[in-house]
UniProtKB/TrEMBL annotation:
Domain of life from the UniProt record: Bacteria
Organism whose genome encodes this protein: Rhizobium jaguaris
Protein name: Uncharacterized protein
Keyword field: Plasmid
Length: 138
């Protein structure tokens, strides 16, 4: 499966877009990594989510329900969240929206390796968000 969406979507106009499908999912946090990673000059909070429900998959035609995806939420600058999402815990429900990067297009990082998982990217304004414990982060 390609990283490219099967149609041009409004979020593709933003510089951080990878031209991928837009996914809105609900699931359960599977794993939270210990420390944020400074990646390309920005801090990211890393965790994995097992997708239980796909609420939207615009621009894609794959069935992503049941997959575990890697999440890297940018924070600490004007392009991501103001701060980390507090108290993320494995086993807790979560809802996210962002660009879906398939395994074929995902690249390994220190936390996303062995095996490399698909990625939910751009999970912050102006495209994505995270809804956790009743708080909306974007």
């Amino acid at each position: 499966m390609s990283n490219r969406a099967n149609k041009i979507l409004p979020h593709h106009r933003f510089s951080h877009s990878l031209g991928a499908p837009l996914a809105r999912v609900q699931g359960e946090i599977a794993h939270v990594f210990e420390a944020p990673e400074n990646h390309h000059g920005a801090n990211h909070q890393h965790f994995t989510v097992k997708i239980e429900t796909v609420l939207k998959f615009d621009g894609g035609d794959a069935d992503i329900s049941g997959q575990t995806v890697f999440i890297a939420v940018r924070f600490g600058d004007n392009e991501g969240l103001d701060h980390e999402i507090p108290d993320l815990k494995a086993g807790e429900p979560i809802e996210l929206q962002g660009e879906y990067i398939s395994i074929a297009s995902a690249y390994p990082t220190e936390d996303n390796s062995n095996p490399v998982l698909p990625v939910l990217h751009f999970t912050h304004h102006p495209v994505g968000y995270v809804l956790y414990e009743g708080v909306h982060y974007s």
